[in-house]
Write a structure and sequence with these properties.
heterodimer, A: 114 residues, mainly beta, 7-stranded mixed β-sheet, 4-stranded antiparallel β-sheet, B: 113 residues, 6-stranded mixed β-sheet, 0% helix
């Protein structure tokens, strides 16, 4: 069964460094999302992406964040200058159809900012 | 704005028994989807069950079923014949017109032998 994959599984970085989190969505899916989950808290929406542009973004998704689909398969989340509070689990999700359909989540990337 | 509330931070159940997790939500939309996701200690998000708001029939998936009360904006998850592998965090989520999911704070379920 096709699945969403994410790399790396765990990333440790120093405060102020740039990180790129990578996701490979399910191949025939059209909508892509990034969510984050700070340890012990609920999952929060960051950004949605369709047709090579951002569809929606939350107030968390400020100028430090960017997303890109550099080729036909990868979907990346970049954090330009990491802060301690960016430490969290980051989930990528993909969806075959627009709006209210099932989103399939990747296994997540645990980001630790020191 | 839509909100999702899970009022039970933690629950426990004996193996083979039945447990019900509660979820309420608030929305002004009429067409939407509701989901239950399971998050085991590995922290992977696994879809358990989904319900389309326009369907009156409650969704079921093997030992998992929901009680969807649209007027009351309630969406509870029933797990029958609980198994040790059901131990996890369970998140209720709302999917509406904006596309992104809105999650509740989760219920930590422990299944005891």
């Amino acid at each position: 069964e096709p699945e969403v994959t994410q790399t790396p599984s765990h990333q440790v970085t120093q405060m102020g460094q740039e990180v790129i989190l990578r996701c490979v969505p399910i191949s025939n899916h059209l909508y892509f999302y990034w969510y984050r989950q700070i340890l012990g808290q609920k999952v929060e929406f960051l950004v949605s992406f369709y047709n090579n542009e951002i569809s929606e973004k939350s107030e968390i998704f400020d100028d430090q964040f960017s997303v890109e689909r550099p080729d036909g398969s990868n979907f990346t989340l970049k954090i330009r200058s990491t802060k301690l509070e960016d430490s969290a689990m980051y989930f990528c999700a993909s969806q075959p159809l627009p709006r209210a359909d099932t989103q399939y989540f990747g296994p997540g990337t645990r980001l630790t900012v020191l | 704005a839509q909100t999702v509330t899970q009022s039970q931070p933690e629950m426990s159940v004996q193996e083979a028994e039945t447990v019900t997790l509660s979820c309420t939500y608030d929305t002004s939309e009429s067409n939407y989807y509701l989901f239950w996701y399971k998050q085991p200690p590995s922290r992977q998000m696994i879809l358990v069950i989904r319900q389309e708001a326009y369907k009156q029939q409650n969704a079921t998936e093997n030992r998992f079923s929901v009680n969807f009360q649209k007027a009351a904006k309630s969406f509870s998850l029933k797990i029958s014949d609980s198994q040790l592998g059901d131990t996890a965090m369970y998140f209720c989520a709302f999917g509406g017109s904006q596309g992104n999911l809105i999650f509740g704070k989760g219920t930590k379920l422990s299944v005891k032998p």
